[in-house]
């Protein structure tokens, strides 16, 4: 596959459920086990069904016996989801004493690299690490947007799919400020 070009994808903010997005790839804010969990991860596994879990188990058996490292990304089928693939990435747990922003950015960068390897033109991201990993949404939004804009990619459209009004407002305002 040729190297990705460095064009800026169209960026959209969507208030909604990431499991309902008709895109080539949905990014899963996974836990390192790849075997499902709460929040976005649990919703993707529930809606995607047994095919997603089976491929995650195969990845654990073949390459990720100790789990997927934070910031890395790997793809599976999307099963019953309206997407073609799920790109699983493990976000960092927020820390007040250690700067882990490069790991959060890497989740986006590596997910786009995986999307390019799949030939995905459209990708939907959740607000990675902002749920049970406690990353403040006001800090996560600029990191996520900057990482997407700074990554050479052939992806044509990136959607940030935000589950609640507060996250949607923060990401939308951050994007407005970025464009000015």
UniProtKB/TrEMBL annotation:
Highest classification ranks of the organism: Bacteria, Bacillati, Actinomycetota, Actinomycetes, Catenulisporales
InterPro entries linked: Macro_dom, Macro_dom-like
NCBIfam families: PRK00431.1-6
Macro domain location: 1-179
Species name: Catenulispora yoronensis
Superkingdom, taxonomy of origin: Bacteria
A Pfam family: Macro
Name under which the protein is recorded: O-acetyl-ADP-ribose deacetylase
């Amino acid at each position: 596959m040729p190297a990705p070009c460095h064009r800026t994808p169209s960026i959209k903010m969507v208030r909604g459920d990431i499991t309902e997005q008709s895109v080539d790839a949905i990014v899963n804010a996974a836990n390192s086990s790849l075997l499902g969990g709460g929040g976005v991860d649990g919703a993707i596994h529930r809606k995607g069904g047994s095919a997603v879990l089976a491929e995650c188990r195969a990845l654990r058996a073949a390459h990720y016996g100790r789990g997927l490292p934070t910031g890395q990304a790997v793809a599976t089928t999307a099963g019953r989801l309206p997407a073609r693939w799920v790109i699983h990435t493990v976000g960092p747990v927020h820390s007040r004493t250690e700067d882990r922003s490069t790991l959060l950015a890497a989740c986006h960068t590596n997910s786009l690299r995986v999307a390019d390897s799949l030939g995905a033109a459209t990708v939907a991201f959740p607000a990675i690490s902002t749920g049970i990993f406690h990353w403040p949404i006001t800090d996560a939004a600029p990191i996520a947007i900057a990482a997407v804009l700074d990554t050479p990619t052939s992806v044509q459209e990136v959607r940030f799919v935000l589950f609640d009004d507060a996250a949607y407002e923060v990401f939308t305002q951050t994007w407005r400020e970025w464009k000015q």
